Amino acid sequence: MQDKEEERSLVNVEKKLNTDGFTQDFTVRDGRLQTIGDDSSKSYAPDEVTIVDFYRFEGESNPDDMSILYALEMADGVRGTISSAYGTYGDTDSFEFLKQVEDLGKNLTKKHK
């Protein structure tokens, strides 16, 4: 049986999301969400993105060592994730972009369960 902490590890959550169809990796560049690692390099504006779910993770030895993983769905059906350090070490571009998505009311649909 898996230990609760192990079950909630970033790697295990990413594996679960991947099996649920969240296969694309994203980054934020020039105020747009952009795919990573594919030839097409699609990009999306905040109004084309829905936050399906998110997960926060704390470091074992330091509570300030946190990260957050977002499960996202695009208007064209592409699904994937973006992760970043959380708090002081957070990626400002990513958080600004995701804040815009949240402000549009396009968050937490929880459709993937």
- Strand coverage percent: 35-45%
Under CATH, the topology is which? Answer: PH-domain like
User: By helix and strand content, what is the structural category?
Assistant: alpha+beta
Number of helical regions: 3
What's the story with the biggest beta sheet? 6 strands, mixed
SSE order, one letter for each helix or strand:
HHEEEEEEH
Q: Helix proportion of residues, in percent?
A: 10-25%
Number of separate structural domains: 1
Rg of Cα set? 14 Å
What topology, given as strand order, has the largest sheet? 3-2-1-6-5-4
- The beta-strand count equals 6
Q: What characteristic shape results from the CA principal axes?
A: globular
Poorly predicted spans? 1-6
Specify the CATH class: Mainly Beta
The CATH architecture classification is: Roll
Mean pLDDT: 81
Please report the distance between the alpha carbons of the first and last residues: 22 Å
